[in-house]
Amino acid sequence: MQTENKMGVMKMNRLLITMALPIMISMLIQSLYNIVDSVFVAQYSKDGLTAVSLCFPVQSLMISLASGTGVGINSLLSRRLGEGKFDLANKAATNGVFVGILSSVFVAIIGLLFSDKFFQYFTDTLQTIEMGRQYMLICTVFSLGVFMQIVAERLLQATGKTHLSMMSQMSGAIMNIILDPIMIFGYLGCPEMGIVGAAMATVIGQWFAAAMAFFLNYRYNKEIKLPFRQFRPDFKVIADIYRVGVPAIVMQSITSIMTFGMNKILGEDVAIQIFGVYFKINSFIFMPIFGLTNALIPIFAYNFGACKKERIYEAMRLGLKISISMMAIGTALIMIFPEFFLNLFDADSAMYQVGVPALRIIPIGFCFAGYCIVIISLLQAINAASISMVISIARQLVIILPCAYILKSLFGFPAVWAALPIAEIVAMVLCFIFFRKICYPKIEALTPDN
Fold first, then answer.
1. What distance in Å separates the CA atoms of residue 14 and residue 439, rounded to the nearest whole number?
2. What is the pLDDT of residue 183?
3. Which pLDDT band, with edges at 50, 70 and 90, does 12 fall under?
4. HEC letters along the chain
5. Do the Cβ atoms of 184 and 202 come closer than 8 Å?
6. CA angle 257, 259, 261 (to 5 degrees)
7. Nearest to 381 by CA among 243, 289, 287, 249
8. Using one digit for the tens of pLDDT, what is the confidence trace for 79-135?
9. Residues 6+ apart with CB under 8 A from 31
10. Cα 31 versus chain centre, distance
11. What CA–CA distance (Å, rounded) separates 102 from 307?
12. Is 186 left (phi over 0), alpha (psi -120 to 50) or beta?
């Protein structure tokens, strides 16, 4: 006999801490290994760092596709559990795995067809083009690992087992951190593989984490089943997944499009390197917040399905306090110690000249972003994800790119960085408006008989 999931009954402070803390720790380690990857590559070759920086939006696009699908699975599965519809929850899980496999095939084909052309668009440096082509090809052709890792981890998170999700993600990150220096520089009898080694270490870590996540689902996640022997694609369930997933994919993919545009506006290799370094540092600050929202989405969705509006508001208030506080700490660290962060990437004088001002301007918008991330997770959980897509498009395409171009034209290159905090302020205003117009009425309309 099924008992109610802890997301509907546990005291909210304890629930959010027990669910969010494991994800936040694992995503902090995830961001750490992203930084470590670039640190080792920077020590190996500056052209390699440029190549990895240029490839970053492609990797972000790939992860956006996987994570957006995972958000759709997470939201649908948690709502079905909240409604007590366990067979439909199982269908959401199995169809989620199916679409994850299809997505990885799509990414592999794109990588095979367009790796060369992609890097030729941004640079004429042959060494950078060749290194980038090798790195991108490996990461895309073997992308099944990252898709299965993210899907399987979302199944654990959707049922509140975030400590198990942490175990799988940490295992992949630690594997990558260990393999990076061994495969890049050729330690312990391994041949020196340079940037190819960095890509292979990343892929091996992803596949290892995926295997761990599926094992943990099979062994401990008894609230859902994955009956693949009788599996048939259910296009209604897939449509339900992507009703939330597509806006989440678009919303996260826009970051990649914005990065493409910013790289063209920046133009110079050293500026592209700094922008790539910023995103690595940014991930270290933002990843724990995304870990928080990965816990908030199933809590919001479950209680929305169970018509418990007071628990939704309680989770939102607590999430905002944690998110904004952590962003304030991150802002202070980066603005006070920019040289420390640049030193991690073996910065030369040119990188210092460009990077120090950039790292003192960009973090101004972090606290505004902390508010937006929590409200967007609420929109995704209550099946209003298309609104979150509108906010993201406005922030990263309508505001950042035109603003960066205009600021550079009027005030010169250093002013470009101000476009990012300006966009965060605009996004916060939009989030507040949509919360009042969309979220609040939907939540207030809930009754226990719905």
1. 24
2. 95
3. confident
4. CCCCCHHHCCCHHHHHHHHHHHHHHHHHHHHHHHHHHHHHHHHHCHHHHHHHHHHHHHHHHHHHHHHHHHHHHHHHHHHHHHHCCHHHHHHHHHHHHHHHHHHHHHHHHHHHHHHHHHHHHHCCCHHHHHHHHHHHHHHHHCCHHHHHHHHHHHHHHHCCCHHHHHHHHHHHHHHHHHHHHHHHHCCCCCCCCHHHHHHHHHHHHHHHHHHHHHHHHHHHCCCCCCCHHHCCCCHHHHHHHHHHHHHHHHHHHHHHHHHHHHHHHHCCHHHHHHHHHHHHHHHHHHHHHHHHHHHHHHHHHHHHHCCCHHHHHHHHHHHHHHHHHHHHHHHHHHHHCHHHHHHCCCCCHHHHHHHHHHHHHHHHHHHHHHHHHHHHHHHHHCCCHHHHHHHHHHHHHHHHHHHHHHHHHHHCHHHHHHHHHHHHHHHHHHHHHHHHHHHHHHHHCCCCCC
5. no
6. 70
7. 243
8. 787 777 888 888 888 898 999 999 999 999 999 998 888 888 877 888 888 998 999
9. 280, 283, 284, 286, 287, 288
10. 10
11. 34
12. left
Residue 181 carries which side chain, given as an amino acid letter? P
